[in-house]
Specification:
- The protein is α+β, with helices and mostly antiparallel strands and 129 residues long.
- The protein has a single domain, classed as HIT family, subunit A.
- It is built from three helices and five strands; from the N terminus they run αβββαββα.
- It is globular, with a radius of gyration of 14 Å.
- The structure holds guanosine-5'-monophosphate (5GP).
- The site of guanosine-5'-monophosphate (5GP) has 14 residues, from strand 2.
């Protein structure tokens, strides 16, 4: 069965898209730790990050870096943190999280955002890509 992220790639499930290439997609996390929390995924459906072939792994990191630099310009924060977990969705994804305190890295306190706030966040990040 296709992962929820493959359904986002195909457009079956909507998402707030930040960036897309032939191989990768970046979109806002629907239940963000902080405003601007973004997921970067390979379109190839692979469960665990270290199962990716080396080229795809390195290219995913390079894609994530570009997105992270744009997030850092668009969203007021001390820095953008990176995290890979995957316990909920078995399709490789890199979390990029604007951090102001350690709480933002803990996946406990979630930020509630309206559709308009999601849209404005997309616009702000994209303007720096
Ligand atoms: P993990 O697998 O790394 O533990 O977490 C999966 C992440 O994917 C969570 O932060 C969760 O909010 C996010 N997520 C789960 N389902 C969806 C979805 O349908 N759309 C979006 N944009 N994010 C999702």
């Amino acid at each position: 069965m296709a992962s929820i992220f493959s359904k986002i790639i195909s457009g079956e499930i909507p998402s707030y898209k930040i960036a897309e290439t032939d191989e990768f997609l970046a979109f806002l996390d629907i239940n963000p730790n902080a405003k601007g929390h973004t997921l970067c995924i390979p379109k190839k459906e692979v469960n665990k990050i270290f199962e990716l072939d080396e080229k795809t792994y390195l290219d995913l990191m390079s894609f994530s870096r570009k997105v992270a630099l744009a997030i850092e310009k668009a969203i007021p924060c001390k820095r953008v943190g990176i995290s890979v977990i995957g316990l909920e969705v078995p399709h490789v994804h890199v979390h990029l999280i604007p951090l102001n305190s350690m709480e933002d890295a803990r996946f406990v306190n979630k930020e509630s955002m309206t559709p308009e706030e999601f849209q404005n966040t997309v616009k702000a990040i994209k303007s720096y890509l």
